[in-house]
Structure formats: structure tokens, C-alpha cells
Amino acid sequence: MAASDDQVQKSKPMEWSEEHDVLFLREMLARNVFGTKKGSPARGLAWEAIVDSLNEIHSPKFQLKDKKVVRERWNLLRRKFSKKMSEEEKASGISVEELTEKESLIEELVEREDTILAKAESTSKQQLKDNETAEDIRKKAMESLKETKKRNSDQGGASPKRRKSRRAEPLVDFLREKAAADREIRQQELRAKQQEQESQQQMMQAIMLQQQQMNTAFLSVVKKLLDK
Predict the structure, then answer these.
(1) Where is this region: Disordered (predicted)?
(2) Which of 61-75, 94-108, 192-206 is least confident?
């Protein structure tokens, strides 16, 4: 039985036109897809929302199967744009050609993606540094406990005439100092966690401010293009 025209059309990969790309990039910008963490459920939902929205458009017609298609399309557009900009700069030293709307959208999205990646890398490095600091504090505390235990043990061996009822004192001292060291470790970890939270809040505020500035700049570019 011969397949229908609709079935044949759905089996073929979608051909992207300039208009398809512009609508796709506008949707990416509107959904702020890079405002969420890479690989997170929120990022996945943003891509899915883009797919659903584009598939509802009747002209030009989109035939997107899943979010993988749009992710791959974005990566391809980014690579081509970066290559073109690099070739232009090598040829003339500066970019001389005026950007099209599609290229302006790609440039804006590239800046957003790069900003988020840089912030995530900075946060990851700070988290690693905080973990190393906490581990160093823990090691020093344990070394101090070992020295205390050894000192108390030596003092107990040098005084054989102590009364039997006092033999438990080194253990009591050890437990007391261990409890104090544990409290210090917890306080240090709590301070490190508070510093991390404050750092993340400052980072998010900086990202939001930068995104607002990017939106303003982008709208200015779009306005100039429309005025032409």
C-alpha cells in the first residue's frame, strides 16, 4: 500500500529556510533558553516549549519531532556564525559587513550562552575551593585531636601513682576537645555555605542585570533594522 503524501513528508527531515531560522531564533530569545542551567530539567522544558510553539506556526510550516532537533540546529547556526565572523576578522581585521536580523539574533544568543557558561564555571571553581577549605579545616582538627590524645596518654603513663578513679580523665578531656573541634568544623562549614549562598545570589543578580542590558541592546538593534 503506497504511503500518503503526508506520511512521506513527515518521514523527510525538515528543510530550514532563512525564515524558519529567524522565527526559531526569536523564539529562543523570547523563552530565554540560556537563563536556565545547562542539562537541567528547566532547560529541557524550555527547548520543548520552543518545539511546541514552532510546530503551531502554519506559515512557514515547521515539522519538529523533538527538542534534540532544535538543539542541534542551534549548535549548527552558532558554529557557522562563529566561523564567518572569524574569517571576516582575519580578512579585514574588523567586521565590515552589516549583520542581518538572523545574524543579530545569533550574536545576541551567543553572548547570553557564553555569559551563562562563564558564570557556571566560576561558581564551580568557587565550590571546589570551598570544599578544599572545609577539608583542610577537618584535617587540621583531626590532627589536633590526635595530638591531644597522645599528650593525655603520655601524661597518664608518667603518673602511675594516680588514683584509679582518675584514670578516665584523659578520655573525658579527649571527648571534650573532640566536641569542641566538631563544633568548630560545623561552624566553619556553615560559614562557607553562607558565603556560597551569598556568592550565588550576587551572581544571579549580576546575570539578571546583564540580561536586562542585553535585552535593551537587542531591542535597539531590532528597532534599527525595522526602521530601515
Answers:
(1) 121-173
(2) 192-206
